[in-house]
Design goal:
14% helix; Jelly Rolls; 184 residues; single chain; five-stranded antiparallel sheet; alpha+beta; six-stranded antiparallel sheet
Length: 184
């Protein structure tokens, strides 16, 4: 049975020190947004800024915060996406296999605590439905993603809550947590 959204066998405070959990000496997510000149990412959620765009690849900063339910909505990309964890709190990344395959749903923790089996970098295969959220108690997480071939709006498809619930009923709580309500 899947873990509850925001919970995992991994702790949210990656380093475990009290100063990190208390936020001592750490920027707020609003300061990160201002410092990196990030913009709201419509539909998917979070904040971003494209830092590289060429015929071969694209790269962005991506910031998850508690705002807007603090998640990146379930979506599918036509190409491989590589995540890079830069700073902040750990992130749960949920991966659903393409509908035509018999693959397993996978939960990955992005972070910088290797002892807790967090990944500072993770590759999401093309056509994999993905969504992410801060670990419980998380304030913000700064990530980067790289795509090659490059991202374009045609490569992005937001997932339907009803279709995901039909395809993966055992992950109901996760799917509700990582989708926006569908319009009637």
């Amino acid at each position: 049975m899947p873990a509850e959204p925001g919970n995992s066998t991994f702790d949210a405070g990656s380093c475990g020190c009290s100063c990190r959990r208390a936020g001592v000496g750490r920027m707020t997510y609003k300061e990160v947004i201002e410092r990196l000149n990030l913009q709201s990412l419509p539909d998917e959620g979070g904040y971003y800024r494209q830092t590289w765009n060429s015929d071969e690849s694209t790269a962005i900063y991506f910031l998850l915060t508690p705002e807007n339910n603090g998640f990146s909505a379930l979506h599918t990309l036509s190409y491989v996406e590589i995540y890079h964890f830069y700073a902040g709190d750990s992130v749960q990344l949920l991966l659903f296999p393409p509908e035509e395959t018999s693959g397993e749903v996978q939960e990955v923790i992005l972070g910088n605590n290797l002892e807790k089996k967090e990944y500072p970098q993770f590759i999401v295969p093309a056509e994999t439905t993905q969504g992410s959220c801060l670990m419980n108690g998380g304030e913000w997480a700064l990530l980067g993603t790289t795509m090659a071939p490059p991202y374009s709006p045609e490569t992005f498809k937001l997932s339907s809550r009803s279709k995901m619930l039909k395809a993966f009923p055992d992950y109901r709580d996760w799917i509700i947590r990582l989708t926006r309500e569908e319009e009637a």
